[in-house]
Write a structure and sequence with these properties.
The protein is mainly alpha-helical. The protein is built from four helices and no strands. The chain has a single domain, classed as 3 helical TM bundles of succinate and fumarate reductases, CATH 1.20.1300.10.
Amino acid sequence: MRGLLLRLEPIIWLLFGQRILIGTMLLTPWILVVGLLVPLGIVDPQALSYERAHAIATASLFGFLPIGQLILAALLVLPLWKGAHHVRSLLIDFGGGERDGAVGTLLYLTALVGSLVAIVAVVGLQGLAQE
């Protein structure tokens, strides 16, 4: 199993790195808007209403590319892979290298299952928009 994890390591690092990029680009403005601009009255609180958020999440680019769903899926899926990688690295740092194969497999399978659940939930948003 350790050999499989070593072969998948570049893919896992890609997912890990993308989470850092997306988190930096999207989480920082979100904290700015929700944490400062809305309480100071600079941004109208209705800009964060459920209807508007749902419209953004189900928006499409050029009528066929579900850009809102892709961004929402990335915001849900990528932190799972980042967290799994951090926990695995923490285990290795604390001397758990002999159990790395089993624990790494469990962590990455958990991230995979969570990713699939998140993707199904995000795809289900489109069905809610059509009702």
